[in-house]
Fold this sequence. Notes:
With 261 residues, the protein is α/β, with parallel strands linked by helices.
Amino acid sequence: MVDAHCHLNYPKYENDLDEVVKRAKEKGVGKIINVGTSLEYSKIAVELSEKYENMYAIVGIHPHDSGNVNGNWEKDLETLIKTPKVIGIGEIGLDYFAHNDVDSKIQKGVFEKQIEIAFKNKMPIQIHSRKAADDILDILSNYKSYFLNPPGMFHCMAGNLEYLKKILDLGFYVGFDGNITYKGLAPGEDTSLEELVKYTPLDRIITETDAPWLTPEPYRGSRNEPSYVIITAESIAKIKGITFDEVNNTTTKNAETLFNI
Ligand code: NI
């Protein structure tokens, strides 16, 4: 199994990273992809990919951090991309949820630049989208002629079925996290994650944790880690009425195909 999106590059793992990695391996999580949210955290993700054989890095500027970029950020990002175990650009996108106060024009500019950098360098993109479905689809449609096949994945899918359908039509994979084990609707959403899991074909699903956040039940409230991606896969199997092995085999293949790992 692959954890295609986590942040072991964050300080929360400074003291016990070796144990976290060991537990993941013991549970059958063979590959871990750490994702940058700023240049600083992208660099740490790259360092980890050089230190641990089973780790890869996705580098990029998160919409929350898009207001803090300096004049050289595009050049710095392109330098990071050249590192051997960088396999994608993320997490990039738009976040219009209440807690993000970065102006939408700034978010869009940084998102668009990173799409250009990604496809120019033949890298898939990993998208963060929160309450911004229309603008995300507008921007992606504008870049359709630059798309790789497949173009990338949506991280931590949320939204309605219409949005999901359009994402699938564009050729993207869809990532699900531990929050699919939570009861009820997430704040600001009108469609349950269970419905989204049901609708998404297994051959388009990728498993991820977003650790340290989105810890699945029954560990919700504590720090998340890649070994818990197994719980998300078990939940997908239950929702779809299929076996864990089917979910494990297909989602692993999906992640390995998309990121060429
Ligand atoms: Ni994340």
